[in-house]
Write a structure and sequence with these properties.
Shape: globular
Distance between the termini: 39 Å
Largest sheet: 7 strands, mixed
Number of strands: 11
Structural class: mainly beta
């Protein structure tokens, strides 16, 4: 497993932007697919986006409608989630997770990921 730490969350107004970062403790992160999930109060954790090890393939939840962009920087062992045109319903704790299996996949299923960060709070105000 690899240790992950999210950062970049905060309070933003509707229509604003934030960039979340997911920093890994080991260079091995560059060989894993990474996903972003979120969990709002009283709701189940839901898939947001995922990126493969090389960054050549991405997968997004349909409800995002192009507002978020996932990317990665191997030199910094970091995966990013750029969030634009934020809405109140985007308020949640955002988690990044690594799929350390050797299966080539971009999964929207939380149980397919076995290394998780502690999360970062994103609050969007109206």
């Amino acid at each position: 497993q690899v240790q992950l730490v999210e950062s970049g969350g905060g309070l933003v107004q509707t229509g604003g932007s934030l960039r979340l970062s997911c920093a890994a403790s080991e260079r091995a992160i560059t060989t894993y697919a990474v996903g972003w999930f979120r969990q709002a109060p009283g709701k189940e954790r839901e898939f947001v986006a995922a990126i493969n090890w090389s960054g050549s393939n991405t997968y997004y939840a349909e409800f995002l409608k192009g507002r978020f962009t996932i990317s990665r920087d191997h030199a910094k062992n970091t995966v990013y989630l750029e969030m634009d045109n934020l809405k109140v319903e985007d308020t949640a704790v955002y988690y990044c997770a690594a799929d350390t299996s050797w299966v080539q996949r971009l999964s929207p299923i939380a149980s397919d990921y076995n290394s998780w960060g502690p999360g970062t709070q994103v609050t969007v105000s109206s």
